[in-house]
Amino acid sequence: MKQSLPMYNYKNLRAYQKAYDLSMKIFYLSKSFPKEEKYSLTDQIRRSSRAVCSCIGESYGKFRYPAHFVSKLTDSEMENLETQVWLDFAFSCEYINYEDHKILSIENKEVNLLLNYMIKNPEKFIFKD
C-alpha cells in the first residue's frame, strides 16, 4: 500500500489547524448566545467557521487539478471572511466582549494570511503523483 506524504494530509496544514481551533472556540463561545439567535447568528457563525476547515479538506480532494485546488481555497477564504463579519455582529450585539472579539479577530486574520499564502503558492501544497 502506497503511503501518502505527510504534507498531503490536510490535517497537517497550519491553516487547517488554526481554523479548526478557531471554529471550536467560536462553538463554545456561541453556546452563550441568546436563544433567539439560535437559527440566525449562532448557526451562521458556527457554519461559516466550520466551512473554512471543510473547504481546506475539499481542496485536497482536488489536488490533481491546481485551478480546482485554488478555487476551494478561495471558498475557504470567503468563509473565513464571513466568520469575521459574524464575529463583528456578535460584538456589536454585545454577545461577546471586546477582548474575545479582539483575540478571535486576530486568529481569524492569521487563518486568512495562511490561506492567502496557499492560494498564491499552490505548488508548495499540491501533492505530485
UniProtKB/TrEMBL annotation:
CDD domains: 23S_rRNA_IVP_like (cd16377). It comes from the Bacteria. Signal peptide: none annotated. Coiled coil: none annotated. PANTHER family: FOUR HELIX BUNDLE PROTEIN. NCBIfam families: four helix bundle protein. This is Four helix bundle protein. It comes from Solitalea agri.
